[in-house]
Design goal:
The complex is a heterodimer of chains A (124) and B (342). Chain A has 3 helices and no strands. Chain A is mainly α. Chain A has one domain: Methane Monooxygenase Hydroxylase, Chain G, domain 1, CATH 1.20.58. In chain A, α2 packs antiparallel against α3. Chain A is flat. Chain A starts with 10 loop residues before the first helix and ends in a 7-residue tail after the last helix. Chain B is globular, with a radius of gyration of 21 Å. A two-stranded antiparallel ribbon of chain B has the order 1-2. Chain B has one domain. In chain B, a hairpin with a 2-residue loop joins β1 and β2. Chain B has 342 residues and is mostly helical. The longest helix of chain B has 36 residues. The chains are: A mainly alpha (124), B mainly alpha (342). The interface between A and B is large, with 68 and 90 residues.
Chain lengths: 124, 342
């Protein structure tokens, strides 16, 4: 089992990041230079599907999407708290498991609350 | 880190990059052939024998087509969007151990680009950044179809990330490490996690499909309502980068599913081999598992119809998250019982 990770472990990752970024930038620049470009007023408009587009796409969308995002932030933080526990599962033994059950209890109280409040309902 | 190490890592990175792109390109061919087979058609058959050169023809076409940016679009964000998607898809593969150590020129070469002790967290983190690529691209297009596609994609991806995170915790609990290398080594031979955690695998598989925006969770790009979803306005290689990143992610997440639940490069009877023979056989075993996962994901796409959005959210929040939590608690209790802690 690997105990420590030093910054040297991350150097190869840096190489991969450089290769990936180089590929993306190269592709975007080359296609930009290589391809033909013909503009006209009609063509520069956004794609529509038979009916002329009204206004632009900078408008408010359903608040449910926002709710989903906010709830995700709350619950994802709680999920991240499970990870350090899971790594030390065998060392913490029963004490850790009881703490986990308690924590899941809190998690579920919050979960039940948003459920009963109807934050997860999309049909209404 | 010495020079030889740096050279071997660079070679591995480049090789992995080329393999990722090659696999992604031929996945498109394979998918079209498979779809044709399922629907009793012929599929692509013009470019080369059996249409085998089709991905190359498609790639060349995408490179040479007009690179169009709508007048109303936010130009820089429009360009950055596909870039982020492709970038994140390409760097996830760095933490995957592709086989046992290979012995070349008297050096033991580890077939994992970067082995650090937070492997799983790194994967989840990078996958989360991928959401930005789709959201930025869809929003910058300034098209309502794109906007809806992007918003659907991001709320679907973040919702399913919760269940995915919780289902992977059971594997971390059993292994006691976040490093993918340790997780693979703990599944030596046929001691695969799928036999201990079938439910966690099932949840992880469903959530992976949702993260990949694959059918039956392909609402972000459902053609019948949203034309192309977040990439409606994209053309040329910008569209190509989006499609490429989707297929690269599919390859990488098949690899991650194989690593977490199906023993990675382990295969039954591997103790009978050693050295380079073992390394090559382990790579082959891993490649076979990845191929099977890709096949199943494609098979699902051409078999199961799409969910409705409220059904999707219902499944993610009200079914998968509670089931994943219960699975985690049961795992903890069973291990506690077996170890005699209670």
């Amino acid at each position: 089992m690997q105990e420590i990770s030093t910054s040297a472990n991350y150097i190869p990752l840096l190489l991969q990041i450089v290769v990936a970024a180089a590929f993306v930038i190269f592709t975007l620049v080359v296609t930009h230079k290589l391809t033909p470009r013909i503009n006209s007023d009609r063509k520069d408009e956004n794609f529509e599907c038979g009916i002329e587009a009204e206004g632009n796409a900078r408008f408010p969308v359903s608040v449910r999407y926002f709710m989903t995002a906010i709830l995700f932030v709350l619950f994802d933080v709680e999920v991240i708290f499970f990870y350090p526990y899971a790594v030390n599962f065998y060392e913490l033994k029963m004490e850790g498991l009881l703490a986990l059950i308690m924590f899941v209890g809190f998690f579920l109280v919050g979960f039940l609350y948003i459920r009963l409040k109807g934050a997860l309902e999309w049909e209404k | 880190m010495d020079t030889a190490m740096l050279i071997e890592k660079s070679a591995l990175v480049l090789l992995l990059f080329l393999i990722s792109l090659g696999v992604a390109a031929y996945q498109t061919y394979f998918e079209r052939k498979l779809a044709a087979w399922i629907q009793d058609r012929v599929g692509p058959d013009r470019a080369g024998p059996f249409g085998i050169l089709q991905p190359i023809a498609d790639g060349t076409k995408m490179f040479l087509k007009e690179d169009f940016i709508p007048a109303k679009a936010d130009k820089w964000l429009f360009i950055i969007g596909p870039g982020i998607s492709m970038f994140t898809a390409l760097i996830t593969s760095s933490v995957i151990p592709w086989g046992t150590n290979l012995n070349l020129f008297g050096r033991d070469i580890s077939l994992q680009v970067a082995d650090f002790n937070i492997g799983i967290l790194f994967v989840f983190g990078v996958v989360s950044i991928g959401v930005y690529g789709i959201m930025i691209g869809g929003w910058a297009s300034n098209n309502k179809y794109s906007l809806y596609g992007a918003i659907r994609a991001s709320s679907q991806m973040i919702s399913y990330e919760l269940a995915m995170g919780i289902s992977a915790i059971t594997i971390v609990m059993l292994t006691g490490s976040l490093s993918l290398n340790d997780i693979v080594q703990s599944q030596h031979g046929m001691n695969w996690n799928i036999f201990y955690q079938p439910l966690a695998f099932f949840i992880f598989f469903i959530t992976s499909l949702a993260e990949l925006n694959r059918a039956p969770f392909d609402l972000p790009e459902c053609e019948s309502e949203l034309i192309g979803g977040y990439h409606t306005e994209y053309s040329s290689m910008k569209l190509g980068l989006y499609l490429f990143s989707e297929y690269t992610s599919m390859f990488v997440s098949s690899a991650i599913m194989a690593v977490l639940f199906f023993g990675g490069y382990n295969f039954p009877g591997m103790d009978a081999f050693s050295g380079n023979t073992l390394a090559i056989l382990s790579i082959a075993a891993f490649a076979l598992k990845i191929f099977l996962f890709i096949f199943v994901i494609m098979w699902i796409r051409w078999t199961i119809p799409r969910f409705r959005f409220d059904q999707l959210m219902h499944l993610g929040w009200k079914v998968l998250i509670p089931v994943a939590i219960v699975n985690m608690l049961i795992t903890g209790l069973v291990v506690a019982w077996n170890q005699g802690w209670m």
